[in-house]
Design a protein that fits this description.
The complex is a heterodimer. By secondary structure, chain A is an alpha+beta fold. In chain A, 33% of the residues lie in helices and 23% in strands. Chain A contains nine helices and nine strands. In chain A, strands 1-2-5-3-4 form a five-stranded antiparallel β-sheet. A four-stranded antiparallel β-sheet of chain A has the order 6-7-8-9, with helices on both faces. By secondary structure, chain B is of the alpha+beta class. Chain B has a five-stranded mixed β-sheet, with helices on one face. Chain B starts with a strand and ends with a helix. The chains are: A alpha+beta, B alpha+beta. Chains A and B meet through helix 4 of A and strand 4 of B.
């Protein structure tokens, strides 16, 4: 609704999901099951998500416009659009996350992010509670603005995962395929991975920042997120 | 479509278009404190409580409020009167256009967190834009209210 009202698309049929009981976060020993109608504020203030994400979910969500906006904006609305500037996609992509689609079944978020739009319905997000640590970083011109660039660093099990979003394209997930972080996170390994990440991702310009600016920010943000991850762990 | 909404404690039944926004519904029922501002979900001017949760009425369908409770500043005068004088004392009411949204969200903040830090106040109210004050006046006013309130509570033991 937040975004629909600002466009001029016509829809022949709209399906309202609000009475399907998808407005709750279910937490089990294995996973979080977050319904499509759960608001951003519910996720931001959920104690289980906060504890599991080492505060990264709260850090990612707390500057999205204001409290009133986050009380209205939903997980489904945010994830389905797969918007490039999304803090939500960047944060959950670094976790072991899956979306449940009404027709398409359970799909890894990493795959879903690059799928074309279709007429399926996003039912919920599933986040596996694999042992991990997470740290979130973003650059905004000011609080409540869209991010100029954002980043999440994670260690899920034995795997390092780094996401970079607001490039301004959709968030991308990087793994430590070269073993740069194999001996752990140090100033040197974090800087080396940050340079590798900056070379690997494509950035471009828009009204929030030029390609050159983002190219300069990306390694700094990745390095900071990795160092913060080291401290969290 | 017919909706039944408890507006400021009074049940209202109305036949509305399916695409009617909540801001238009409450204003049509006399709640003129709710202002239309940015219309991009950014300014907080149109804040109302939907089942005691602050939401942007410019970005909420009235149909979404069917069977639920909606409160505007008209229905929260007593609660607002506790602290608005402190904000005015700081000269932070200025032109007054953003005030209803600010006051509504301050009520939501204080219900959720009765003893917020300055950072928590600024974070919670960051979705309310004011083009007059620079926000420091509102912060000082709310801080003065909280200091006096908690001072009195300490005095009472």
């Amino acid at each position: 609704m937040m975004w629909l009202k600002m466009g001029n698309h016509s829809f022949g049929t709209a399906i309202d999901l609000c009475d399907l009981g998808l407005d709750t976060i279910e937490e089990t020993d294995e996973e979080f099951r977050i319904g499509a109608m759960v608001t951003l504020r519910q996720m931001e203030t959920h104690t289980g998500l906060d504890a599991y994400s080492c505060g990264a979910i709260k850090a990612a969500f707390q500057d999205i416009v204001g409290v009133q906006f986050r009380n209205g904006a939903t997980l489904g609305g945010s994830l389905w659009r797969r918007m490039g500037f999304s803090d939500i996609v960047t944060a959950f992509l670094a976790m072991d996350s899956y979306v449940e689609l009404h027709e398409g079944g359970i799909v890894p978020l990493e795959r879903f992010v690059n799928m074309p739009y279709d007429k399926d319905i996003l039912v919920r997000l599933i986040v596996k509670k694999r042992p991990g640590a997470f740290a979130y970083q973003a650059v905004r011109k000011q609080r409540t603005d869209l991010p100029t660039i954002n980043c999440m660093a994670a260690k899920v099990g034995d795997e390092y995962r780094v996401t970079v979003g607001a490039r301004p394209g959709r968030a991308v997930l990087l793994r430590d395929d070269r073993g740069i972080l194999a001996d752990g996170i140090t100033e040197a390994s974090a800087a080396a991975f940050a340079e590798h990440a900056a070379e690997s991702i494509r950035v471009s310009g828009n009204m929030w920042g030029s390609a050159e600016y983002r190219r300069a920010l990306a390694p700094v943000l990745v390095r900071r997120a990795l160092l913060a991850l080291g401290e969290v762990r | 479509m017919e909706v039944k909404i408890k507006l400021n404690g009074k049940t209202v039944v109305d036949d509305i278009p399916a695409d009617m926004l909540l801001i238009d519904f409450v204003r049509a029922h006399g709640c003129k404190s709710v202002k239309r501002g940015c219309e991009t979900s950014a300014c907080g001017l149109c804040t109302v409580m939907l089942d005691d949760v602050p939401v942007l009425s410019c970005s909420t369908l009235a149909a979404r409020a069917d069977g639920r409770s909606v409160c505007t500043l008209e229905g929260l005068q007593a609660e607002a009167s506790e602290f608005v004088g402190f904000i005015a004392d700081q000269g932070a009411e200025q032109c007054g256009f953003c005030n209803p949204g600010f006051v509504m969200n301050t009520i939501a903040l204080l219900r959720e967190n009765p003893d917020p830090t300055d950072d928590e106040i600024l974070a919670y109210l960051s979705g309310n834009l004011c083009r007059c004050s620079g926000y420091v006046g509102q912060l000082r006013g709310i801080r003065a209210f909280l200091d006096e309130k908690h001072g009195k509570e300490v005095e009472r033991g």
